[in-house]
């Protein structure tokens, strides 16, 4: 039964209806409303006589629709779990959405750690955005994330819906309550496993999970970045703005409540351009960033407009005369609040060491601490940086609650000290954590495991790692050792090989180059008929799936940004190294033919073929005369 047919049956159970309500709502608004009358609730039960009550049964509930929640939901859904994704805003993406417009950074440190751009779901999203959104529109990024989520048949998306209660049975969440005032619905959602990706740990709070807020004392973990005494302070929030040149003088008069900013305020906060500014318009880390959010928003708007007033009217920046604001954020981009405690608390030392046996994601952004007073501390630099020597792994044991048995977490709220959090909080890292947690959650549901049981079983952890690698998740020091991958038993041959990039690299288990250090892909020069690479087995094998991993230029940065400095070197199109047109052949039999590819990871499933040769014939790339392939996998 397809999605449209499923919706048209309008079954009494809530879950099946809501899988298909969102894509069809605009075309058939009346049909969605048909489920409401049977869900009306007595005032005595809910004290909400005009709200419609909907009971949902699912496998995984994801609370929070930032990049961590989006990637967790997609990963779990693609691994067969039914998912309800609850987001309290009208759009997905969190700080990367058009409501905040923060560009996504991660292990590659902008351009500082070449070759370590994250793979997996965040790479899929970035590549899609680069091709579909060359105009660099933040609203088109919103739409891309929405499309990715609603196009997954296993995901039910509830926008503008807030989790506000958790029913407990002992140490387990039994059911979660959420409400959408726009549609006047109350949801009761039951699942065997729950993921808190809210950033502020709202679901964990309602479930009674143990968490921390603020900064640990230096003596607790021996962290040099920690203060001498523990306190409740954290990183502040920021409000960004964008501006553009209108080609004629554009005056600006600030509101009376805007800050009066002077040159002394900007002693450590340099203004070199103003098309996109500024992460250091930061404030509120000395307060409760959750309960004081409205006050923080007001002060940030006051500071941002005061900075713009300084740019326009101080006389220090006369070239700003034709520039005017065209957008300013009305939602503060939050950095820090609560952190849920897991079986392992990541520390500064863990990030400097970098490896774990139960690794499921990577980070690499510097530990990037900010004075909690933010802009109100003009005497201090806006941040202090400690850079790990290499990318670091994040362990599964830091991604589930230590006292709520069926609760996992993804995003900036994972189990970490304040010092470690200052690195793990960035969005590309949060996205990788989300993919790891979603994949692990699906595995837990399928095998009826609690997350702790999974983490304590080395055999299952290895299986989880191999599943993540198969989905192009990046793990430091972990390579493809999938026993089901038939390509690992094959010999390789190619039409040509560059001396540093032989055909045998496609089965060495690694799927990225580190410039100046490691080469793990095959490169072959394309002649008039293209280039080919082949797997050969001594005896015929049965193949029904082939997975290809192409080069998408990990040595470059790739993100949506309004900053011209950050945008420099980014290609807003298909990446030139990437294979564009290709044919898969089993002997003389064509298995697949693709034109116009721009993605890194491609999977092809087909009727099983018995063959002793698999050839990938590449006829064009998106801008290179070299065919570049990192890996070919084959499955029966």
Structural summary, described in words:
With 636 residues, the chain is α+β, with helices and mostly antiparallel strands. Among the domains are: 3-94 and 113-127 and 144-207, FAD/NAD(P)-binding domain (3-Layer(bba) Sandwich), CATH 3.50.50; 237-328, no CATH class; 486-635, Galactose-binding domain-like (Jelly Rolls, Sandwich), CATH 2.60.120.260. A hairpin with a 4-residue loop joins strand 6 (172-180) and strand 7. Residues 1-46 have low confidence and may be disordered.
Summarize the structure.
The protein has 636 residues and is an alpha+beta fold.
What are the key terms here?
5-stranded parallel β-sheet, 636 residues, alpha+beta, Jelly Rolls, disordered N terminus, FAD/NAD(P)-binding domain, 25% strand
Helix and strand topology:
Blueprint (H helix, E strand, L loop, with lengths): L2 H6 L5 H12 L3 H5 L9 H4 L5 E6 L2 E4 L3 H12 L4 E4 L34 H12 L5 H13 L4 E4 L3 E8 L2 E9 L4 E6 L2 E4 L5 H6 L3 E3 L4 H4 L15 E2 L2 E5 L30 E2 L4 E2 L9 H21 L9 E6 L9 E3 L7 H6 L5 E5 L3 E3 L14 E3 L5 E4 L11 E3 L8 H7 L2 H21 L3 H5 L2 H13 L20 E4 L27 E4 L5 E20 L13 H4 L11 E8 L2 E6 L6 E21 L4 E10 L1
Parallel strand pairs: 1-7, 2-3, 2-8, 3-4, 8-20
Antiparallel strand pairs: 5-6, 6-7, 9-15, 10-13, 11-12, 11-14, 16-19, 17-18, 21-23, 22-27, 23-26, 23-27, 24-25, 24-26
Helix pairs in contact: 5-13, 6-7
């Amino acid at each position: 039964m397809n999605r449209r047919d499923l919706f048209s049956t309008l079954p009494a159970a809530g879950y099946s209806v809501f899988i298909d309500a969102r894509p069809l709502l605009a075309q058939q608004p009346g049909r969605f409303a048909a489920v409401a009358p049977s869900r009306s609730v007595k005032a005595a039960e809910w004290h909400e006589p005009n709200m419609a009550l909907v009971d949902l049964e699912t496998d995984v509930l994801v609370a929070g629709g930032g990049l961590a929640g989006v990637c967790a939901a997609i990963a779990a859904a693609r691994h067969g779990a039914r998912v309800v994704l609850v987001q309290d805003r009208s759009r997905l993406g969190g700080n990367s959405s058009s409501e905040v417009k923060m560009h996504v950074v991660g292990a590659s440190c902008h351009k500082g750690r070449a070759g370590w751009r994250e793979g997996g779901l965040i790479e899929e999203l970035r590549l899609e955005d680069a091709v579909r959104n060359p105009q660099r529109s933040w609203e088109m990024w919103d739409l891309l994330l929405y499309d990715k989520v609603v196009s997954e048949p296993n995901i039910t998306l509830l926008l503008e819906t807030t989790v506000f209660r958790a029913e407990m049975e002992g140490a387990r969440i039994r059911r979660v309550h959420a409400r959408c005032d726009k549609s006047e619905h109350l949801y009761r959602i039951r699942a065997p496993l729950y993921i808190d990706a809210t950033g502020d740990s709202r679901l964990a709070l309602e479930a009674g999970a143990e968490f921390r807020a603020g900064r640990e004392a230096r003596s607790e973990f021996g962290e040099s970045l920690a203060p001498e005494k523990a306190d409740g302070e954290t990183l502040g929030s920021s409000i960004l703005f964008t501006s553009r040149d209108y080609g004629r003088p554009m005056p600006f008069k600030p509101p009376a409540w805007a800050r009066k900013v002077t040159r002394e305020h900007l002693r450590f906060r340099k203004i070199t351009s103003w098309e996109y500014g500024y992460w250091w318009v930061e404030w509120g880390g000395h307060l409760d960033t959750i309960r004081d959010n409205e006050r923080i928003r007001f002060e940030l708007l006051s500071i941002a407009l005061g900075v713009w007033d300084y740019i326009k009217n101080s006389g220090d920046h006369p070239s700003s005369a034709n520039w005017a604001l065209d957008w300013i954020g009305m939602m503060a981009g939050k950095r820090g609040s609560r952190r849920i405690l897991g079986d392992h608390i990541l520390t500064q030392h863990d990030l400097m060491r970098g490896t774990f046996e139960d690794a499921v994601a990577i980070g690499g952004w510097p530990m990037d601490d900010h004075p909690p007073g933010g802009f109100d501390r003009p005497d201090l630099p806006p941040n202090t940086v400690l850079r790990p020597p290499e990318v670091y792994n994040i362990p599964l044991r830091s991604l589930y609650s230590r006292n709520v048995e069926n609760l996992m977490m993804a995003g900036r709220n994972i189990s970490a000290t304040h010092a470690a959090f200052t690195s793990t909080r960035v969005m590309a890292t949060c996205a990788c954590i989300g993919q790891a947690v979603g994949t692990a959650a699906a595995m837990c549901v399928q095998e009826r495991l609690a997350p702790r049981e999974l983490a304590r079983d080395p055999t299952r952890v290895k299986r989880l790692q191999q599943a993540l690698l198969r989905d192009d998740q990046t793990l430091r020091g972990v390579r493809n050792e999938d026993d089901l991958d038939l390509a690992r038993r094959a010999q390789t041959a190619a039409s040509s090989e560059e001396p540093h990039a032989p055909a045998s690299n496609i089965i060495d288990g690694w799927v990225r180059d580190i410039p100046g250090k490691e080469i793990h892909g095959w490169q072959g020069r394309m002649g008039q008929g293209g280039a080919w690479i082949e797997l050969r087995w001594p005896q015929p094998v049965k193949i029904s799936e082939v997975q290809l991993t192409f080069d998408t230029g990990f040595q470059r940065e790739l993100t949506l940004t309004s900053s011209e400095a950050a945008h420099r070197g980014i290609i807003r199109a298909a990446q030139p190294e990437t294979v564009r047109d290709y044919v898969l052949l089993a002997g003389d039999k064509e298995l697949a033919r693709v034109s116009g590819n721009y993605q890194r990871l491609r999977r092809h499933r087909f009727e099983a073929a018995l063959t002793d040769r698999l050839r990938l014939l590449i006829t064009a790339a998106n801008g290179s005369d070299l065919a570049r392939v990192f890996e070919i996998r084959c499955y029966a």
